[in-house]
Amino acid sequence: MKKNLNLVLITVDQMRGDCLGVLGHPAVETPNIDMMARDGYMFTNAYSAVPSCVAARAALFTGMGQRGNGYVGYNDRIPWRYERTLAGELANAGYHTQSVGKMHTYPQRNLCGFHNVVLHDGFIASRDRNMKMIDHWDTTDDYLPWLREQIGSYADMNDSGLDCNSWMARPWPYPERVHPTNWVVHQSIDFLRRRDPDKPFFLNMSFVRPHSPLDPPQVYYDQYINGDIPMPAIGSWAEKDDPERASLLIDAGVGPLPPKALRRMRAAYYALITHIDHQIGRFLITIRKDYHLLNDTVFIFTSDHGDLMCDHNLLRKGVPYEGSSLIPMIIYDPGDNLNGRRGSRYDAVTELRDIMPTFLDIAGADIPNNVEGASLLNFVNGNGANWRGHIHGEHSGGIRSNHYVVTPSEKYIWYSQTGREQYFDMDNDPTELSDLIDDDKYADRADRLRKILIAELAGREEGYSDGMKLYTGRKPQDYLYKEMGIKNGEQNS
Predict the structure, then answer these.
(1) Backbone CA torsion sign across 251, 177, 187, 377
(2) What is the pLDDT of residues 291-310, one digit of tens each?
(3) DSSP 3-state assignment of 161?
(4) Domains of the chain as residue ranges with CATH
(5) Distance CA 131, CA 114 (A)
(6) Is 374 exposed, middle or buried (0-12, 13-18, 19+ CB in 10 A)?
(7) Residue partners of 481: CB distance under 8 A and separation at least 6
(8) What is the DSSP letter of 76?
(9) SS3 for 13-59, per residue?
(10) Which helix (H) or strand (E) holds 303?
(11) Is 395 annotated in the active site?
């Protein structure tokens, strides 16, 4: 393998693992990402173990799972004190490291080992509510001043009237060239100009979309709004009614939505993905034609988690179903530097924590002992036979706090506050339409995964498991405070 390869991590926010043309999606068009998959290596059972923004990025940047990085739910106010990070290890290995776009760390300008961060986290509401503890995005974000320079001091990130967790959708109100998606590529191309030419580089291109606000440029919205929009997958087990009309809340986590709103939401979501795809194409053209670096660069494309998009009458993320937890994961090697069988697909279960050791492996750098992920080059090199058999995922969040165990062929779910269990045969039911937990034919298979979860949770501070059984109703936490050596409530100190 060639030495000193450049590395590019392309991360999108809240993109489902099934929203790729190369996987046969009936509506969404992703020609550039499809090309990356055809000429690279695709992992079709990649998961976000804790499917929300901060926890996912902790796994991505540290290579550690929940016990190692502490995150078992959403909390964006815990200081990041990780000694070893992906960018930091690459910097130590001689790389020039740069991040553009979303980081979602605390404190907000934490470099996490990068030499420089050009930041756009989007609007994060808790940072506004807690200005005494956390800088307001108006003064820490790099995109907003740029936007105002481009179109006027009146501009703001919420001018569309859409909330950052809303299901509502409409076209972007300004010219396409100043959309946050375009800005990430503007800044990434500018890094190619300003990089140290004597060093290989690691660039993190981190898009805020297709996370809401669902505001694609008009041309992309028009591409989908009048076309065929596939309807959500609704399991026989899903709640069908919404007597309290909870779905109409701006940041609802449950549906169903009115048909017109559902159509607009899905059309705008697909439009944002195609917009990102075209901007990725713009970056690939530039790195190939203007800088002649394409064949010396290896890319990984992924997402932090998915979006249910009203599957099973649920919205957003944080639950164990495929729309929320399954993510895209592609290694793109245009120069054939990895010497593998390009175009291969692998169905082993992979996770965001595998990205750090993969990049370090490509760079020829040492992988720290605390890294819990494994290099995906094991598959590229034909050494994936002893890969892990399952992933344990989870997400705290009140009554919806959940845990799941997933293999390439099945999934077991346990809701820690109610004791509800579910079992899905993923080989024959990939959209989780039929819950088989009460089917005697699957009792042994479900019990095997239940025992895996019991072992995974044994000794955790919440008291979910004593190694013999699961305990329902124990208080959920968003972070493993004791295991990480801090007291609950001191996270902002």
Answers:
(1) positive
(2) 999 999 999 999 999 999 99
(3) coil
(4) 6-389 (3.40.720.10)
(5) 25
(6) buried
(7) 70, 461, 487, 488, 491
(8) S
(9) ECCCCCCCHHHCCCCCCCHHHHHHHHCEEEEEEEECCCCCHHHHHHH
(10) strand 297-303
(11) no
Cβ–Cβ under 8 Å, residues 293 and 6: yes
Among 19, 96, 104, 312, the active-site one is 104
Residue 190 has pLDDT above 50, yes or no: yes
Q: Is 288 helix (H, G, I), strand (E, B) or coil?
A: helix
Distances from the Cα of 409 to the Cα of 44, 249, 387, 389, 412, angstroms: 12, 36, 15, 10, 11
Among 3, 12, 62, smallest CA distance to 327 is for: 12
SS (H, E, C) 405-447: EECCCEEEEEECCCCCEEEEECCCCCCCCCCCCCCHHHHHHHH
Helix/strand number for the chain, H first, E second? 14, 13
What's the CA gap between 482 and 462, in Å, rounded? 10
Closest CA to 92 of 69, 63, 108, 115: 115
* Catalytic pick among 19, 53, 112, 310: 53
Q: Dihedral angle at the C-alpha atoms of 379, 381, 383, 385, nearest 10 degrees?
A: 40
Alpha helices in 250-338 (DSSP H): 259-289, 322-325
Q: End-to-end CA distance of the chain, in Å?
A: 45
What is the H or E stretch that residue 118 is in?
strand 116-119
State whether residue 395 is helix, strand or coil. Answer: strand
Q: In whole angstroms, what is the distance from residue 336 CA to residue 329 CA?
A: 18
Q: Nearest-CA neighbor of 140 among 129, 152, 154, 124?
A: 124
pLDDT digits (tens, 9 = 90+) for 311-322: 999 999 999 999
Q: Which two tokens stand for residue 277?
A: 């795809």
- Quote the distance between the C-alpha of residue 423 and its chain's center: 24
Instruction: Give the whole-angstrom CA distance, residue 132 versus residue 124.
Output: 15
104 in active site: yes
193 residue type, one letter: R
Cβ-based burial of 292 (10 A; exposed 0-12, middle 13-18, buried ≥19):
exposed
pLDDT in tens, 221-256: 999 999 999 999 999 999 887 766 666 676 667 778
